[in-house]
Amino acid sequence: MALQDCIFCKIATGQIPCHKIYENDSVLAFLDIGPLSEGHTLVIPKAHFEKLDQCPPEILSGVIQVVGNVSRAIVSALGCDGYNVLCNNGMAAGQEVHHIHFHVIPRTSGDDVFTEWKSGSCSKDQAELLANRITQNL
Ligand code: AMP
Ligand code: ZN
Fold first, then answer.
1. Which atom from ligand 1 is nearest to the alpha carbon of 34?
2. How far apart are CA 8 and CA 98, in angstroms?
3. How many angstroms separate the Cα of 84 from the Cα of each of 7, 40, 122?
4. Does residue 17 have its Cβ closer than 6 Å to ligand 1?
5. Is 101 an annotated catalytic residue?
6. Which of 3.30.428.10, 2.60.40.10, 3.40.1390.10, 3.40.1280.10 is the CATH number of 3-135?
7. Is residue 79 classed as helix, strand or coil in its secondary structure?
8. Where does the pLDDT of residue 42 fall: very low under 50, low under 70, confident under 90, or very high at 90 and above?
9. pLDDT category, 4, cuts 50, 70, 90?
10. What is the pLDDT of residues 7-17, one digit of tens each?
11. Sign of torsion, CA 35 86 30 95?
């Protein structure tokens, strides 16, 4: 997708409005337009990168710093019990906007935001093979 068609680039450059929470030279935080819970916030680098592994570490570290600060502010402001930080990468993972973003999703005990976490299993042998395969690609 061309950058001029990227909705988050347009938000970062002010061509599309947002409810801004915070910004600095390289990072912007704003409310999600379709919140999973009250206060659901998105944190993005202003520069366009599609996925987390494509974002240079120095930019990513600035984004994560803002994720932490915004999360703290959300907990103080809303008095929620906790929050999820989520970053969908790729269509299979549910990424709909192809400009990296971290969701900060406020949570309260007993809410219905994520109802299921389906744990699987893996044998010791499988785990060893998998760990080796991944390690060899670092
Ligand atoms: P994802 O599925 O991880 O790509 O999430 C994209 C998120 O962007 C969704 O939660 C949308 O509600 C949110 N979103 C899309 N357009 C806007 C917009 N103009 N302003 C704020 N949030 C948006
Ligand atoms: Zn973009």
1. 12
2. 9
3. 23, 10, 25
4. no
5. yes
6. 3.30.428.10
7. coil
8. very high
9. confident
10. 999 999 999 99
11. negative
Q: What's the mean per-residue pLDDT of the chain?
A: 96
Ligand 2 center to 6 CA (angstroms) = 5
pLDDT confidence of residue 114: 86
Catalytic residue among 40, 98, 99, 101: 101
Q: Are 107 and 113 in contact (CB under 8 A)?
A: yes
Looking at residue 2, what is its pLDDT?
59
CA–CA separation, 8 vs 46, rounded Å? Answer: 8
Torsion over CA: 85, 89, 94, 98 (sign):
positive
Tell whether ligand 1 has an atom less than 6 A from the beta carbon of residue 23: no
User: How does pLDDT run across 105-137, given as a tens digit for each residue?
Assistant: 999 999 989 888 899 999 999 999 999 999 999
Instruction: Identify the nearest ligand to the CA of 97 by its number.
Output: 1
